[in-house]
Amino acid sequence: MTLKLYANLVSQPSRTVAWVLKVKGVAHELVSVDPGSDFIKSDEFAAINPNRLVPAIKDDDFVLTEGMAILQYLGDKYEWTGPTDLYPKDLKVRAKINEFLHWHHTNTRLFTIDIVRPEIAKKLKTVTPKDLTALEDKDSLIEEKFDLLETFLANDFIAHTDFPTIADYTAYCEIDQLELMGYDFSKYLKVSAWIARMKSQPFNDEIHETLKGFINQFGLTA
After folding, report:
1. Beta bridge pairs of residue 157
2. Suppose 159 and one of 88, 96, 132, 145 were both cysteines; which one would form an S-S bond, judging by CB atoms 3.0 to 4.6 Å apart?
3. Predicted local distance difference test score (pLDDT) of residue 106
4. In terms of domain of life, where is this protein from (predicted)?
5. Separation CA 141–CA 44 (nearest Å)
6. pLDDT on residue 65
7. Which regions in the chain score pLDDT beneath 50?
8. How far is it, in rounded angstroms, from Cα 216 to Cα 222?
9. Integer Cα distance of 30 and 185 in angstroms
C-alpha cells in the first residue's frame, strides 16, 4: 500500500515531512486535513491520531504521529542514511541532528507558538492576554533564538554539516513563515546565508504555495 501522509501545509511539521518526501521522491498519498474540518473531528481520524493533530502517517497498518518521530522513521525506513544524506547513520552526525530536534521543541518551535499563532488570533479576534504578552516579547524571542541558531551553524548547515539534513528542513519550516511575513534577519549572517541555501533546495517554491496563500489571506505581517 502507498504511504499516506495526513497533513496541512500551513502546519510547520506537516510542511517539513511533505517537503522531504518530495525531495527524496517517495511515492505517497497526501491527505489534506484542515483544522476544524469534519474529518479532523471524526472517529476515523481519531483512530489515526487521538490528539487530532497533523502530521501523521499510515504505512500499511502502521500509524505514527509527531513530526520529528515521522522524519526519523522515514529516514531509517528509506535508508536516507548515507554519509551526506538527510539522516546519516554516522553516530556523531546523527547525534547532532537529534540534538537539534530535541532543542527545537522548546526553542525554534516558539516562533509558531508565540508569534504566528497569536498573530492569527488577533486577526480572528480571539486573542488572549497571554497572546498579547507573547507578541510584546517577540523581538527578544527572535534575537535570543537566532543568536543560538548561529551556534548550530558551525558549517553550512545545522548539525555542523555541509549538507542539509532533516534538522535543516525542520528549522527552516519554522523560520520561513516569519520571513514571508516580512521579518528581516539580515543581521544574522550565518542564518541568512543558511536561509538562502534552504531556498535553493528542490521543491521549495511548490511546498510553500499554501503557506504564502494563507499569510496573504490573513494579512500577517511583521
Report:
1. 161
2. 96
3. 97
4. Eukaryota
5. 38
6. 98
7. none
8. 13
9. 32
